[in-house]
TrEMBL record:
It comes from Asparagus officinalis. Residues 81-216 form the Class II Histidinyl-tRNA synthetase (HisRS)-like catalytic core domain. This is Class II Histidinyl-tRNA synthetase (HisRS)-like catalytic core domain-containing protein. Signal peptide: none annotated. One of its GO terms (molecular function) is RNA binding.
Length: 289
């Protein structure tokens, strides 16, 4: 039996059931009205409880939180552009290791500290890092650490040999960024050097460094910082509010269009009462205007 046939049969059964049910009631009986009203009340009550739910793994953002998200993206994009970065999707950074290699690595993974001090320790004879690959890696780390020192940010960097990620993917140093504050979110960014990825798309071997951001962690931090200020977050970036003491929409459109043409963020309010405009302005002022 097809789907449409089943539906027609269901309707027919329902009609017959209603006919039989009506045999027990007198249409003129006030009790029938009471029953129908009660059924309607139950149905409407159930409908009011059928509220839309947010799908698992997603978040809804209020206008204030959306403002924070947009601000975060703007800062991130501007920093990337300042340093000549471009966006790129990357494949997923797994590889097995033999027991022997894993045991040798285990000698170093507990080491963590000041970049230049730990680098000096790794170059000592006791470390036994004297093979060609290790020497090249240590020399490259020295260049990196000295560059960080010259840029006056080495005090914000910790050399951590326990970081291990993407052995099939990264071809040099890897790094993670963590937030040093009251909000505990773990790593907020991670990346590293990869010299072979661009070749997958262009056919040329181009050295590159990339980073990915845990954007939800960044949002959580920014939201917490805003809450710590005990200040309301502006949901809009309006610079000028045009208050029209009438309902003249055309006048409002003319005035704000001139502001928009001058790249000024503006909106308008139409009301014949001065106090209503003052009240609206007071509310905006409380939000940081």
């Amino acid at each position: 039996m097809g789907k449409n046939e089943a539906s027609i049969e269901d309707v027919a059964v329902l009609v017959e059931w209603v006919k039989e049910l009506l045999l027990y009631f007198d249409p003129k009986d006030s009790g029938l009205d009471s029953l129908l009203n009660k059924v309607k009340e139950i149905v409407e009550s159930n409908d009011s409880r059928r509220l839309p739910k947010i799908p698992k793994g997603t978040r809804d953002f209020a206008k204030e939180k959306m403002a924070i998200r947009e601000r975060a993206f703007s800062i991130i994009v501007n920093v990337f552009k300042m340093h000549g970065a471009v966006g790129l999707d990357t494949p997923v950074d797994e590889k097995g290791l033999t027991v022997e290699i894993a045991e040798r690595i285990g000698m170093f993974v507990k080491k963590r500290g000041s970049p230049l001090e730990l680098l000096s320790e790794l170059r000592s004879k006791d470390s036994q890092l004297d093979n060609a690959g290790s020497v090249i890696a240590l020399n490259e780390l020295e260049i990196l650490f000295k560059a960080l020192e010259k840029s006056r940010c080495i005090d914000k960097v910790v050399f951590d040999l326990s970081l291990a990620r993407g052995l099939d993917y990264y071809t040099g140093v890897i790094f993670e960024a963590v937030f040093k504050g009251s909000t505990q979110v773990g790593s907020i960014a991670a990346g590293g050097r990869y010299d072979n990825l661009v070749g997958m798309f262009s056919g040329k071997q181009v050295p590159a460094v990339g980073v990915s951001l845990g954007i939800e962690c960044v949002f959580a931090i920014m939201e917490q910082l805003e809450n710590d200020k005990h200040e309301a977050t502006r949901a809009t970036e309006t610079q000028v509010l045009v208050a029209i003491l009438s309902k003249d929409l055309t006048l409002a459109a003319e005035l704000v269009s001139e502001l928009w043409g001058a790249k000024i963020k503006a909106e308008f309010g139409l009301n014949k009462r001065v106090m209503n405009h003052i009240t609206a302005q007071s509310k905006l002022a409380s939000l940081g205007w």
